[in-house]
Structures are given as structure tokens and as C-alpha cells.
Amino acid sequence: MLVATAVFALMIVMLLQLTDGLMTNANRIDENLQVDQDVRVLFDLMRRDLAQARIGTNQNQFYGTPTRLSFVSSTPRLKTNYVSDQRLVTYYLSNNAIWRAVVEPTVNNYPAPWNPLLPEWWTNNVTAEPEALLEGVYAYDSQYPNPFVYILRDGSLRSNTAATDPPSGLTVGFSIAGRRAIARGSVPTNQLKKIKYDIELNIPPAFNP
Predict the structure, then answer these.
(1) In a designed cystine with 31, which of 60, 178, 185, 197 is the match (CB 3.0 to 4.6 A)?
(2) What is the rounded CA–CA span in Å between residue 32 and residue 67?
(3) Element (H, E) at 58
(4) How does pLDDT run across 68-97, given as a tens digit for each residue?
């Protein structure tokens, strides 16, 4: 009787361990799928916004740093009262998350304050109702500590863009943690998933007709 009880208990323990392993693996797969979906949404939106980037005269309306990307693009919404159809789109890294902020001109802020040719204008107009698109964002590696790297037409890399020399490409690279790791407040390095994505930019050099 004792032997039968011990064998039965051992079988129960093994079954529980097997079930726990299967559930852990299923949760890990589900979390990876969710991470992939969140990343795909970010890049789809970023690629669509960049495809609508506007061309400026004398100075291109495109401003990038290692942690922030701002540009003027067209808006799909019809404007009234003769307000411009342009808008300022900004992607930036803050508190281990990538945010998106959009500022559109209105009858109150256009045309006097709406001047992308002023350097301070870019930094004063990025806080209007930002949206966190991706959380749990960390450095890709020591070579790419920040998410945004810009590719010039000669193939060289730059961490900051120049007003008269916009990049021809953008590399977005980061590591991302799953939601369970974020909820725990501790993110083991071996649980970070590395993401790197190249986006081609169709922004010509600045010109003065």
C-alpha cells in the first residue's frame, strides 16, 4: 500500500511538472507573439508617417537625434479655414518606451508659431498628447545604445541629422522585454529580444529654387 501510494504521488508530481512546463512554454510563445505584434504596429505606423514627410526649401523639415525623430508630413484629414495640411510628427524614447506625438496646425497656432525652420520650434511642440507605442525598450547593444541611427547618401552613419543634409535611410534598433518581465520590474538580459529595422527615406537634399 505504501509503495503504491509513493508511486502514485511520484506520478502526480511528474504530471504537475510537465503541465507547468507546458503552460510556461505556452505563455512564453504567446508573449513573443504579442511582442512581435506590438513591434509590427510601431514600424508600420512609422513607415507610413515617414512616407508622407514633406520637402522644404532652404532647409529640410526633418530633425533627428539618437533618441528623437521629428519631421513635417502631410495630414490625411481635410482642414478648414485655410489652415495648412502639414503636421509635426515626433517619435522619441522616454522611460524605456517609444512615444509618438502629433501636432497639427489650427487657426490658433498657424501661421505665426508654426515655423519648422526654427530649431527651437522642434523641441517646443512634441508634448501634445503623446501616445506610448512600445514599452519595455532597452539598448540594442553597446554599439547601438540609442534607437535611432541615420544613414547618409554616401553610406556613412550619423547620430544627428543636419538641416541641409537629410539622411537617405534610418535604422531603428533596440531590445525589448516582454510584458511579464515589465510587470515584475526586473528584466533579465537573456529575456530581451533584439529588434533592428531599416527604413528607406525618400527625402531629397534641401534646395532653394
Answers:
(1) 178
(2) 25
(3) none
(4) 988 888 776 655 565 667 778 889 999 999
